[in-house]
Amino acid sequence: MIKLIKKLSEAHGVPGGEDEIRNIITKELEGICEISSDVMGNLVAKRGEGGKKIMLAAHMDEIGLMVRHIDESGFIKFITLGGFFDQTLLNQPVVVHTKFGRIPGVIGSKPPHLMEEKERDKVVKAKDMFIDVGAGDSEAAKKLGVTVGDYITFDMPFKELKSGLISGKSFDNRLGCAVMIEVMKKVKTNHTVVAVGTVQEEIGLKGARTSAYTLEPDVALALDVAPAGDFPGTKPEESRIKLGGGPVITVADGRGRGIITHPSVRDSLIAAADEGKIQYQLEVGDGGTTDATAIQLTRGGVLSGVVSVPTRYIHTPVEVAGKKDVEDTVKLVVAYIEGL
Ligand code: ZN
Fold this sequence. Notes:
Blueprint: H1 2-10, H2 19-29, E1 34-37, E2 43-47, E3 53-59, E4 64-70, E5 76-81, E6 93-98, E7 101-108, E8 130-132, H3 138-143, E9 151-154, E10 159-160, E11 165-168, H4 171-186, E12 192-198, H5 206-215, E13 219-227, E14 248-252, H6 263-275, E15 281-284, H7 291-296, E16 303-312, E17 319-322, H8 323-338
Parallel strand pairs: 3-12, 3-13, 13-16, 14-15
Antiparallel strand pairs: 1-2, 2-12, 4-5, 4-9, 6-7, 6-9, 7-8, 10-11, 11-17, 14-16, 16-17
The protein binds zinc ion.
């Protein structure tokens, strides 16, 4: 599974440009599932026929950037796609996805040598940042293929840390994608399971909304990552989620403006964890939300829940998670489906 996670993490797929991820998932599930995609680009992988229809949703997109302007010196100005803390962007290596292929770049900044005292205390905003691809001028940038609207992603290799931890970019939500793939390979049920690699989650849960409408599932689980808070400077009341604590079952997120998980789904997930002796963590989230929020509100409403892999430093290029938590998330989702 580590090989799969590495491949998914190092692949690139910003909102609306998820092709590479869709291809990886398709290759993994070919022969096991009936695979199709829809007009939005959602990947739909169906296993079985009859019984209840269970939808699994893992968003394929990652937060990224888009070229909005190339200045006369060839520097690229960009917009952000998804929720960034601007400070995490500064001085990152990036990949610009041009019509002629991928070119490397860096998000440059003024060195401390050139800063005035008060500049050192200021957060540089994304709108003031620029990307240097070494073009020299706008004509050269054009020759490299750089065009307004090109996608830009983080360029960060996957790493294994000590104690079974892993680090990389886009764990949100390639870990969810990896869990979904493994569940589809392992689950044994008489129900119909439909795995959906959703598009454009990071900019408004868009693919989940349209795919759930088409599928009309009886029950749906979003598979995602949950923000762990087990590091210096974060209090337990901000996030009690920790690495090594097992899969996260969401009770509510987005301060209730996201999902309030239907009690039947929440309780069945907890029962499946208890029966399978899988350690789990309950989440009441303050900030973000997941695809389940859009799915729950589809048509007359869908029984929906969220199972997540606890992850540190979400929405940075150095997200950190635990291998055992990923494996246990797979186990929990399989146990839940098999118990339905
Ligand atoms: Zn996510």
